[in-house]
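Supplementary Note 3. Input sequence used for the single-chain structure prediction.
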Amino acid sequence: MEKQLEILTKAVTTWLAEERPVVQAPAAQELAAQLDVSLGEQGADWPTLEAAVRNYLHYNPDAAQPDFFKLLYSGRNDAALLGDWITSLSNATMHTYQVGPVATLMELELIRQWNRLVGFDDTSEGVMVAGGSQANLIGMMLARHHVCPDYKTRGSQGQTLVAYVSDQAHYSAQKAANVLGIGTDNLIAVATDEQGRMCPDALTAEINASIVNGHVPFFIGLTAGTTVTGAFDPVAACSKIAKAHNIWLHIDGAWGAPVLFSQQHRHLLADSHLADSVAWDAHKLMNVPITAAVILVKHAGALTACCSGGGGDYLFHADENAAYNLGERSIQCGRRADALKVWLSWKALGNQGFAAKIDHLQAMRATCVEQIGASSQLELLADASYLNILFRFNPGTGLTEAQLRTLNIEICKIMMRSGGPYVDYAQYKGRTGIRLILANGEVNAGHIERLITKVERVGSELSTA
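The predicted structure, written as discrete structure tokens, is reproduced below.
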């Protein structure tokens, strides 16, 4: 293990410490021509492996830098990073207490704390999963089991089940409908208001239309922090609709649920306790290394009833630790012990540490919105109540929507090719803009000003070229 530690030490103390742009990889074909990533019959020596590791770090975007505004995660969490290393070293799995004893106790404590933040009581449950997409999949699976318990053993039996999400929901809902055999045509995209929030009246109309067609409404998926604009769907109003029709209510809080740490901003996800299940990504705003997520469920025993099947003859023994075997709650068998990195992070920071980060980033959001509003060439494309800011450069010279789309996409590409700041573009209700994500607690007003200034400069150069 000595050689591995030597390379890891170089990576941490030397390679990552080098001054470099936040993004510097060339186009895929160009990089493929530069690097040798081939595999063959003969093994390679350690210098070859070390060079490959250095190239990997060199060309990968540096998500720890404050100039990384592209995705719903950024920054570095040192305690969680330590946990990730130790998890790989121990190579524990999580199907039974016997093979992951400490990690199991940690995961159960994490689930208790997450459920308390959501507002679920002590009888609620959960299980850690490989990302928000899987959490949303299980949420829809729970809903299917709730309305049609025989589906697990007998299939659809001719029923057409229908699910509802907003037209701004994450694409994982489509994947879940596909995997679960619901059919993507039976996933209804419900209209949203100008702020990107699901319209309860539109939801009611869609449900009634499904019933008239002889279909079975079974799942309402709300979003807490949409991917493009950070919108929060109205939980209380949609909960009333769900209860009236005996529909499972799920909240995709992969991005937005951590707002519950903040006393100042938790109102954005008010009434979260009214949901039946909640998805939460620790690898987004909590900055835990990818991947770490959880599905939280109000109803005790629901996960086991829905997900269990097999393994009793050789794995899930009815012994004194049976109640601690989490595998029957999960759709996975082999499951990485991601609890350690999340637990270490939470232990190091406490609820107050996460709350302080969210409050700081919300202050940076207000600063950014103010700077955009003060510019004669920038405009917001959506309400920015959370940590997503969608805006665009508009020189005010009568450009069409198509021309503005092309212009703002090119701004993003030029900034990327020049080393950053690293942002992305997105389309919202027919208009395209620059999507800025605030997830790194190290971001300050200077970073925001540098980004805004560069957008204006690059946009002006393109407009006058």
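The mean pLDDT is 97. Residues 107 and 339 are 5 Å apart (CA to CA).
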